[in-house]
Amino acid sequence: MRFACFVALLCSPVLAADGNLPPAAKTRVDFDKHIRPLLKSRCAKCHSGEKRKGGFSINTRKTVLDGSESETVVVVGNSAKSLLIGRVAETDPDLRMPPKAQKALTKTEIGLLRAWIDQGLKWKDGFSFGTLHRQAELAPRKVTLPKIPGVTHPIDRLLLGSGIRKNSAGRSNRLGILANFATDHVFARRVWLDLLGLLPPVKELDEFAADNRPDKHARLVARLLADRRAYATHWMTWWSDALRNSYRGTGYIDGGRRQITGWLYQSLHDNKPYDAFVRDLVTGANGAEGFIHGIKWRGTVNDSQRREMQAAQNVAQVFLGTNMKCASCHDSFVNHWKLKQSYAFASVFADKPLELHRCDKPIGKIAQVAFLYPQLGTIDAKASPAERRKQLAAIITSKKNGRLSRTIVNRLWAWFFGRGIVEPLDDMDQPPWNQDLLDWLASDLAAHKYDLKRTMTLICTSRAYRMKADPGDFRKSLGPERFTFRGPLVKRMTAEQFGDAVSTLTGVWPKPTRSMQRRDGRGQGGQLAAIAKSVPSIRKQPSKTVRCVFLDANPLLTAMGRPIREQVVTRRDSQATTLQLLELTNGKTLDSQLKAGAKRWLEQSGKSPDDLIARLYRIALSRKPTAEEVKVARGFLGEKPTVESVQDLLWIVAMLPEFQLVR
Ligand code: HEC
Ligand code: HEC
Q1: Is the CB of 71 within 6 Å of ligand 1?
Q2: Exposed e or buried b for every residue in 337-373, given b needs 16+ CB within 10 A?
């Protein structure tokens, strides 16, 4: 007893501060997953948009920090001292938030809010509860390019015209900002990786650096984009993520799922105009039916996962940049979509009328058949499903629908620059940081036969793209109104870029396996067989080696972030993980490749260690080693390099951030 009292005495100051608060959650809090839906469903009604009860608004991180009329509501890092927690944990229903009639938050929910505050009040860049129900203009918009003396490139004019830095003094100063260029070697490495996913060959790098023609950047971009094989191979990764195209896994064996590899490769290889590309996918024509077909899950699944719902969700997300997922079991908490709109859109893809289900329960209502944006066109409910999909494709790709081109140019911009003009990429209703830039790029694409390579050329030939990379992390930066363009952000290589870069470095490339080349009548078969079937030039001249995109998933690729492709992925996670670290240090895939590579280096070099070191650096990092680096590497290799010592050196180089980043 006495002991207990003693402890209570000792602890009481702490207890006083902490009250009887439920403990903070121990997990790492994810704003999108844990906090955003909670605030949206329980607080937004009275504290967001125009509403600021008690003078407190949760619209943005800043308004949360600003607090209420009279008080600080959140003390970052100290949830126990935060009024917000005090009010949600309050036992007096007159004081508790949400108030009175509404049910109190659970201990778990309060714990999450506490952890959120304790862990620094993380927010999603650009996200505002105030704009949750904002609906962006769908129609295309004509933008007149501003006149900037001495600057001709449209992107640069748009950036300069709207003031790259709001507080920049004069025009010359602004121009200076777009002149802080990366070196030739850095630029070449960047554009090679961005466009083709490969490290630049040393010889070509030297030629580029030695070239004195003023248009050499544009020439390089054009030449890379003309390499149809390398281009198609590289962009397969990007599109397979978005279109959930995988080669094997759930559903492939029993026909519950179909790959679109052959169609996709051919479309990229031939640079199919984007409107035709989308038409194929929406109608399921020419070998693209796997996309709409979706995944037939085994066993019973929730109604929100039926194929028609998948089709609706994926078309909406990939082509129109809007999220229907959260509206497929109940009205959405993250945007304006309602359950009935989800079902109406899904019905476009259905063979028979769909009954609305709220979560798991049928609610006795039959869905209508309607497109998400009726102002763009209607779909004939009586037409056959195939005919309805044709109508849908026509509406989505019509010139009136500026959303289609805005969504894709924004995704491309994000790929090259690391951050979209609109963020998140799948929420095109959010405000862009440069409306003119977005609208101009979109209209330009539509006006030029939806030629995606044209947009890529525009981007890669701008001064903006040539700038030194910005090492900042935009996720930590503020919303669109505060975003400052300072050049392309430093990006992490994708799993495929990394794997191919290691192959370039070691000279050891994977070989096609039998299962990749296996054919079968139903257009499934192996991934390489599917491509050979669709592209005559590949059939005649198959490649003897394979790039990572065509490999079946392996532990290294998975650890480095290749998704399993059961969900649409429009951006890879750029955060390094523990799994990655383990795989990079102890994984068999990398280890055996480096070992084989070391043998090759030894056989081929035959020259001095210095020569080996110099070549290795040039291949891996597109530059010469510094004197210091030579010294250290030589220390490793000794007078007579061995397989082990060369392998160590290869590993060290492959682990350098400089190797793994696109700068
Ligand atoms: C039904 C409307 C409603 C909902 C829902 C609601 N609030 Fe409130 N909130 C109010 C009103 C009204 C006040 C002002 C009166 C008061 O302080 O009790 C207020 C005041 C507050 C204050 C205090 C401001 C101050 O300085 O006194 C905080 C903090 C707060 N709310 C947080 C929240 C949080 C967090 C949620 C969600 C978990 C939430 N509220 C949900 C209506 C609401
Ligand atoms: C597979 C069906 C399903 C999907 C998809 C789904 N939810 Fe839910 N959600 C539920 C169920 C079931 C509940 C329980 C409460 C109810 O019946 O409304 C719920 C409740 C919620 C609540 C709490 C509502 C409240 O008033 O307390 C939030 C917030 C929420 N969901 C957010 C989301 C978000 C955000 C998404 C999209 C990422 C999403 N949900 C997608 C099934 C789903």
Answers
A1: yes
A2: bebbbbbbbbbbbbeeebebbeeeeeeeeebebbbbb
